[in-house]
Amino acid sequence: MVAEERSEPIGTGFPAFPVTKRKPGRFARTWWGNAWLQAMEDTSLDLAQLKRGRKFAYAGLVGPITVSAGRIAAQVTSDDGAVHHTVVLVDRLSDAQWRRFLDEVAAKAGHIAALLDRDMPNDLVEAAADADVTLLPGIGDLQPECDCEGWELPCTHAAALCFQAAWLLDADPFVLLLLRGLGQDDLTEELRRRAAARVRPAPAQAPEPKPLPALPPVSGPPRKLLVPPAPGIDPDELAGIAARAAARARKLLAEHPG
Amino acid sequence: MTEAELLALHLVARGRLLPTVTADGYAAWRVGPLDPSDVDRMRRLGITRGQLDQVADRLAREPGATTPFADPVPHHVPELRDWAAAIAAEHDRSARVSLRVELTGDALTAVLQVHSMAEPGVVADAAAVWAGEVFEHQERLDAVLEVRRAAQAWAPLARLLELAVPDQLELSDDEVRDLAGGGEQALAAAGVPVHWPRELDRDVTASALVGGTELPSFFDGVLDFSWQVAAGGAPLTEAEMDLLAEAHRPVVRLRDRWTLVAPDIARLARDRVLKPLTAVEALGAALTGRAHVDGEWVPVAASRPLELLRDKLSSTETVDQPAALTATLRDYQLRGLRWLARMTELRLGGCLADDMGLGKTITLIALHLHRAAGPTLVVCPASLLGNWEREIRRFAPGVPVHRYHGGGRAIVDTEGFVLTTYGTMRLDADELSTVDWDLVVADEAQHVKNPRSDTARALRRISATARVALTGTPVENNLSELWAILDWTTPGLLGSLGEFRARWAQPVESGDQVVAAHLTRLITPFLLRRRKSDPGIAPELPPKTETDRPVGLTREQAGLYEAVVRETMARIRETTGMQRKGLVLKLLTALKQVCNHPAQYLGEKDGVLPGRSGKLELLDELVDTIRAEGGGLLVFTQYVTMARLLERHLGERGVPTQLLHGGTPVRQRDELVRAFQESAEPPVFLLSLKAAGTGLNLTRADHVVHYDRWWNPAVEAQATDRAYRIGQDRPVQVHRLIAEGTLEDRIATMLAAKKELADAVLGKQDDAELTELSDAQLAELVELREAL
């Protein structure tokens, strides 16, 4: 991987988190989200400050967040209404470390599948750690910068931003990789390059196209529609619409054996 | 239908429908995910995605809905774009995977294959894809995502993801069993087909076998019943089934081929002997091709005993009309007789469920004569006793017939017919069971439709060589009634009530067509139903059939009748001239009213109506049967008061009626006629014969009841035929209610026997001529006698 070929990526923007109800149990949903927070706690000097930061995170005081390689930034509103520009810098991994990380990703077919499926496999992180690639930031890897006048380290605003970063990580483990210096597109591009390293032989003759068979009769139950929820969208209702449409289609097909 | 529409329907029918947001932000539906075969089809037929999406979108909308994706008017939802994009990414992959199972020795390996949507028709092993020999990087990523998703349907697949190159899996015995036993279906549902090697024989099926080569001596025996496993359709020998039963591994060497045996089949091979079937159960299996084993329906293999059973049922010996029958059976009645003759010969019993008026009674009488085998017990409602006796005497003269009913009853000698009522049978079932009946007939069998009632239980205690049920109601429409009747005629055919409910009634009522078809096959040999409107039947029916319906008087009626006769005759003997004429007319009128209903004679406004008049009881029977057929019924009476009593009585029974009499205004009259003519289930139409006038069109009528009579047949016939035009569109049955043993009875006999003389005696002026009779003649006319 060649650093100079890689352009400085533009930040990826995420909309601000609204006021959120506190849930019981851990702050983050995924194990890596919580591991990020653990890392943050380990590097912080002031646990009371972190608690205040967590309150801010729930209170909808953090604005839209921008994430780019090694950097996470947002505008955070204070108790007194003042708005601050807050940045947390994250140490990036070296090129050599990324090469070793990609070796680990390629070692098992399931790893890239998991990542694309928004899941960070535990054994990938461990294998990477064995190869001296720690994905999660350690002491000294996080550096908050805020234009507020707080003495604490991190300040409440930076703490709030770090907490919300955990939520971003929950939704997409690639955010962690981006913070450590490598975006998703670059990662998949690199994997592709490795795969295309061999010379591709001439494509085999396309097989003789067989005659087009008739449509087989529909058998077995129709595939159930599974979609994630969204505001104003009930996944069960959509599944019901699709199922009823399937029934109507079957009836029509029975009446017109094409 | 265009090719595009056909393909779109096929996709939607398979559940390949996804919600999406259009470029301009509207909620819509599109087809997806597509299989490579779908993409191939699109390419070859020039069908675009847009065409398919359009059809799918139209199909998914639901009129009247208001939610974003169901509303026929599309909602503007640009905020859902990201959500729609995520769905697209999740479902629309560029690659599909499948498993190719290979056989090396007796071990199986599953090789991962990749199919590309970009090049449908091309399949490559994962190893080749990962080696870069074929397809692009995107297909690789989508292939591993597919494997990850499919691993949720079948867990062992996850092992592939542990490899750098997910090329193949060695399958353990358990995994092979799991894959063959259900894993394959789960993977297919997840879009990952499994291809087994050709050298591995998978065509191993099990069916139930009714064993032996002959039938046991009639329907008292049992037949062997066991599981039969077949490979490639050829049944295995006992030794081969033992081999399967003892095999430890799922892949077994059978007949020189490697065979995959699903765990459930191996289990059947081990426990193959099943509980023996009764002959009636085997008959059920012969008719439907299935048997119920361990809570499930299983196919039954063809075998000799089943063939023999089927042959027995369909044998057609010719049966001719019995010589002793004094009438000629119509063709369809002869067919009914043949069917009953066969079923009773086999001791299987049956239910004749023809419409009223088609001649069930005469068919039964013919059956008795044909069998010439012993006494026949007829159980019927009290109001029909008279009818049975009359028809037996008429069509089988010389055959003994007695009524076993009322106080002082006894079973006299047992030949010919014994008639009894449901009520009497219930009380005296023990006495009746001491007789060796050849046939027991349940007339209007819907009276025992409740299998738990004492009456139904009592009926079952009476044994006979064969049992026949007669009913005019469409019994096949009500499954529990069907069970009650067929379980009595042919015990064991439908199983216990609980079994019947679980195996037949529930699935049929929930709309299962396959089970409904099997049930029809099972009961068809045991139920014969013809309707008046059937093409073979209607031409054989005359436009108008008239039947006299004798009924008995209740005790109250008999008492009143005798009192009126005694008192009025005494006064008549003492008077002459005009005064005498007046008294005679008064006598005749009073007696007619008593025969109709005591409440009419006594002038009661609000009395209790049921249970006091034989005519009313029979009318109820007729109304029930006719309404169950959906037929139109006219009831004629001379008296408006009687019509109003009938109106009240039927109303109390929940039967809709309408009343037309002299005072009904013309406009209302037209309304009533229209309501009757145009209704699928018309109200019972009560009419006063005299006052209704001419020119009403009542061709919707199938039945006419003359509750009481004019005694001039010509006027009566004229009024009914011309005035109402009945019998023009459809055959009509006319029932004349006659109180047995009374003057009505005697006059009816006279009318039937000597038409010309009757005309001379009665002339054209109703009862006027009767006033000329002498005292002695009058006394003889009105005397109350026992039923003939």
Automatic annotation (TrEMBL), chain A:
Coiled coil: none annotated. GO terms for molecular function: zinc ion binding. Residues 131-166 form the SWIM-type domain. Residues 204-220 have a biased composition (Pro residues). Keywords: Metal-binding, Zinc, Zinc-finger. The keyword ATP-binding does not apply. InterPro entries: Znf_SWIM. It comes from the Bacteria. The keyword Metal-binding applies. Transmembrane segments: none annotated. PANTHER family: SLR1429 PROTEIN. This is Putative Zn finger protein. It comes from Actinophytocola algeriensis. The lineage of its organism: Bacteria, Bacillati, Actinomycetota, Actinomycetes, Pseudonocardiales.
UniProtKB/TrEMBL annotation, chain B:
Keywords: ATP-binding, Helicase, Hydrolase, Nucleotide-binding. Residues 341-492 form the Helicase ATP-binding domain. Transmembrane segments: none annotated. It comes from the Bacteria. InterPro entries: DUF3670, Helicase_ATP-bd, Helicase_C-like, P-loop_NTPase, SNF2-like_sf, SNF2/RAD54-like_C, SNF2_N. PANTHER family: SNF2/RAD54 HELICASE FAMILY. This is Superfamily II DNA or RNA helicase. The lineage of its organism: Bacteria, Bacillati, Actinomycetota, Actinomycetes, Pseudonocardiales.
